[in-house]
Amino acid sequence: TQSTWEFLNRKSINMSWQGMVDQSLLGTGYVQKAAIHGHDGNPWATSAGFQISPAEGKNIVAGFSNPSGFQANGIFLNGEKYNYIRSDDKCIYGRKGGDSGCAIIKTKSAVVIGVYGAGVQAGNCNSVVEKLGDYLVSTGY
């Protein structure tokens, strides 16, 4: 079988931002909602029905350098609260209820957001989002 990295490497070349959301994230089956935002909080691409406001986007970017707001209040995506699990300077992870969560990856100029739901293992979603983030970093984004 084809690895996620091979899939991303083959599919992402010359792909639009929306194509990355639709094919490289949603197309894996491990991400159910996704978005790519700039560091200014504005959306570059998003999946249908998943609207992260610019304010939510700005809070996400700020949370990479100071996660205390997430620790106290949670992570808000599309108006829904995810409990903060952990983070570092590259990744933020959250959980909502017993069967859904989020993975957020920061690159040089973008933030890649993936949400998973029932039937998906957190690690599978995390891996897909992380690998797209790594790909973007490798291409200068």
Q: Give the beta-strand count.
A: 7
β-sheet strand percentage = 25-35%
Count of helical segments? 5
Taken from the alpha-carbon principal axes, the silhouette is globular
Provide the succession of SSEs. Answer: HHEEHHEEEEEH
Q: Within the largest sheet, what's the order of strands?
A: 2-1-7-6-5-4-3
For the termini, the CA-CA separation is 28 Å
Calculate the mean pLDDT score and round it.
91
Short characterization:
By secondary structure, the protein is an alpha+beta fold. The chain contains 5 helices and 7 strands. Helix 1 (4-12) runs antiparallel to helix 2.
Describe the structure.
This protein has 141 residues and is of the alpha+beta class. Helix content is 38%, strand content 29%. It has helices at residues 4-12, 17-25, 54-65, 68-73, 122-138; strands at 33-38, 43-46, 75-77, 80-87, 91-96, 100-106, 110-116. It is globular.
How is the topology of this model organized?
Layout (H helix, E strand, L loop, with lengths): L3 H9 L4 H9 L7 E6 L4 E4 L7 H12 L2 H6 L1 E3 L2 E8 L3 E6 L3 E7 L3 E7 L5 H17 L3
Task: For this entry, give a set of tags.
single chain; 141 residues; alpha+beta; 7-stranded antiparallel sheet; 5 helices; 38% helix; globular
